[in-house]
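User: For my dataset I need records formatted as: sequence, then structure tokens, nothing else. Please produce one.
Assistant:
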Amino acid sequence: ALVLLFLAMIISAVFICQLLQPVILDLDRDIAVRLQTYEMFGTFSRSFITMFEVTMAPGGWSRSGRFLTYQVDRRLFLFFFCYFLMVSFALMKVISAVFIKQTLQVANRDREQMAAEQARNNKALIDGCRAAFAMVDTSNDGTITVDELVAAAAIPEVKAYLGANDLDVSELPDLFKLLDVGNDGSLTFDEFVNGVSRLRGGAKQLDVATLVYETKRVASGVADICRLLTDPENR
């Protein structure tokens, strides 16, 4: 598209340069008009620079186009009109569309790469959780109890894995409560994976999860008190 744009400017520069040669050489015309015409279109290089300005600069045609139209020949307006239709409104739109398409393709590739990276991270998380879960589950019953999790703190691999996911290994009973979303005193593999994924990322996520847990516990206690107060049999 850029090659076509420069080709259009070259062809237009050659055409208008040759077209205005009689005006430049006309001794009967005003010398100021002839000099101004030569300054803008007298040679190919001058003509190309002027057409480049007309094409790229907003309102760039006003200096040269208005001069030729009003001082040389009004019919030259047709040249600029056709040029604008072909280049500014057609070719430039094509170039803009090509750039936009390429930008969207790059954005799509970035999204695909991010999705692939996220998939790799999830796979790595699941594989790590599976290995840690197998080491913690000393009873081999497919679940983890709080005692097993506390005892696993002595296993260097488990301690390193939990630490790598920013989970505090110094308070494993509290961590177990946050992981045990079913409140049944044991962790399945899915609960363990989801809990590690939810709590990983530093103290901020862990503090929020702790706050949510404590809020639910307090809310449950308040609900029990309200139920006791409203139960006629307890009055």
